[in-house]
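Hi there,

I know you've been waiting on this one. I reran it after we fixed the sequence typo, so this is the corrected version. Both the input and the resulting structure follow.
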Amino acid sequence: MTDNKEKIYTLIEDSMCHQWYVVPVEDVYESGVYDRISLYSPQRNGKIYLEENFDFNMFYNAMIDKGYDVSANKRISITSFEEFLKTV
């Protein structure tokens, strides 16, 4: 029997085309990269907003190595990431 391990995350994009993936803290711990996440990926209320260029790629590769399929199910467009963080 095949074990289907799929993780689906929300993608946030600001007006400057910077992107972050909304990932539960426990998934980042499970990936084994929690201690290598940069300050560009803030943590709020049990979620880490993984910036796309380095942190998400590192997380993504670690999850693929663990046998997960990783994707984004929706995109949220925002004006300012700093202002968005004040609402979560």
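Quick highlight: The chain has one domain: 6-85.

Best,
R. S.
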